[in-house]
Structure formats: structure tokens, C-alpha cells
Amino acid sequence: MSKAENAFHYFLTETVGNTYLIETKMPLKDIFKRYGFAERGLYTMHMRGHIDFLLVDQRSKKPVLAIELDDWRHKFPDRQDMDRRKNILTETGNLKLLRFKVGDTWGEIERREILAALPEQTTHNR
Length: 126
Prior knowledge:
5 helices, 4 strands, alpha+beta, 126 residues, 42% helix
């Protein structure tokens, strides 16, 4: 993991405690089953893409939240197209996806955004 990803992992661990498993660089093909035909760009993203951080329910082992860290390269059209395809896959798979920028300071606003995106029935241990 990069320095920024390590820092975010620490922030995420502080935020969710031991309530969720935190998976890193999780391949999309391991998160979502593919049903039927997918246009080439979506198929490629499904087979080769990954999620930077995936929060997984400890009991059910089901993914509950995906988080991407976007660096300066995400302002270029080819990367924005890849982000668009990843957004489509997570939306189709009913998995919430949050995006945070590398270089930003992560604090209480981001912490509240993460906690608000998690299922209500769980208790968050910090």
C-alpha cells in the first residue's frame, strides 16, 4: 500500500474499530458475481479492477461499504472513465461507494460520512 493508503487504513481502523473487517485492494471479480452479458468496458473493470478499501460484516462476511482513494490521476479522462465504470458496478451490485481525495486531511466530517454509510443495525466500536 502507498503511504496515503496506509494513513487512510489507520484512519478507517480508528473509525470502525473491530466492528468490520477491512479488506484492501479487493478484486471486483471477488466481490460481485457476473450475470449475463456486460459491455466490454464493464467486463474489463469487473475482471481487472479492485476496490481500495472494503468493509465487510464480521458475521455475515458480506461487503457493506466500498471506499476509494482518488489521487491526482483521477482528474484525467481515462481515469474518470474507469471511475465511472467502477461506480456502475458498485451501484449495480448494491454496494455503497465513497470516494475521498488523497492529500486531504481526513477528520470528523469524513468519519461521520463513513459511519452514516454503514448499516444502521450494527454498533460501532471505537
